[in-house]
Amino acid sequence: DLKAKITATGGFVPTNRRTNNYLANITDTSNEWIIKRTGIKERRILADELATSDMIVPAIEDLMKNTDMSLQEIDCLIVATCTPDMPMPSTANIVCRKLGLKNVFGFDINSACTGFLYAISLGASLIESRKYRNVIVAGADKMSSVTDLQDRRTNILFGDGAGAVLLQLSDDETGIQDSLLCGNGDGAEMLLIEGGGSLYPASMETLGSRKHFIRQDGRAVFRNAIEKMTAVSKALLDKNALSIDNVDWLIPHQANMRIIEAVGKELGIDAGRVISNVQYYGNTTAATIPLCLWDYKDKFQKGDLLLLTAFGAGFTWGATLLKW
Ligand code: ACO
Questions:
Q1: Given 76, 82, 96, 113, which residue is catalytic?
Q2: Could you tell me where in the chain the CATH 3.40.47.10 domains are found?
Q3: Full-model pTM
Q4: What fold is seen in the domain 177-323?
Q5: Distance from residue 273's CA to the centre of ligand 1 (Å)
Q6: For this structure, is 212 an active site residue?
Q7: DSSP labels for 139-173?
């Protein structure tokens, strides 16, 4: 059974950096506190007048440089995001228009920080069905559009970015081996953006009560993120009769350096094999894992086993094993 494989990656982060000192000037925090509690040194922030699609377009253009395929050969575009340009049309459709894609069906997936893992699993099954040959999966979020700059409990965490991968049928044993995707609604109140949907449509009241911004119970999210990413990673390894010693690289969702380190430690993997870039980008939600793949692609050798794991709003969580 041939698998779907990531054959190219692309990425984009805005050039504008939001430093810890900038945040310390507007809220009661400090560079030292932020680094100690989160590991984050800076995040990239997209210009106000630009949207999530404006990061996906350059990420896909970057990806295309690493293939000999033409844009018109793309069959399907799946965008994982919780900060779409607008409720409709989908961000995937907006990207199709901006890139001039004509032979594509595209749609968005909203599973917050787990979105990219849900999306590549779905993309892989489209490839494995043999009905589609070239599927692009992008993970992208403009988290600055939903971050309350006045709230020190969240303004320190998030940044903007986009990553994209091309999925094609593998011609050998490499590729996406297996995934375990999970979710329940049990953590809905612990991490959410309440306003702007059909329950609380935009109104003076929702704006006044700051419902359009992300809100969370940091401690509960922190604890659940470590527990769930560790458990699902172990379960996926067990299911495939593998142990952590078989894993060459662990790529956890990039929310906080302490979460990343704790998951690595619980799983028992050498710290040098745990990938992170949260220091430079903060939490870019659906973009964190594809941005790691993009940043670190030159480190991976053909045949390396990568374990990806994510956790986010819902709660949702999951893990994917892929042979590079
Ligand atoms: N600067 C200074 N002090 C702060 C700040 C800040 N930016 N934020 C909170 N504090 C204070 C709190 O008010 C609290 O003070 P108190 O004890 O007087 O009440 C104290 O610091 C400790 O607060 P905690 O919330 O317990 O701090 P914690 O060590 O848990 O760190 C943090 C907070 C960084 C938000 C952490 O809980 C976290 O990272 N949680 C995960 C959240 C997350 O990553 N969410 C993203 C989306 S989900 C995902 O991607 C997995």
A1: 113
A2: 4-173, 177-323
A3: 0.96
A4: Peroxisomal Thiolase; Chain A, domain 1 (3.40.47)
A5: 26
A6: no
A7: EEEEGGGS--TT-TTTTTTB-EEEEEEEEEE-SSS
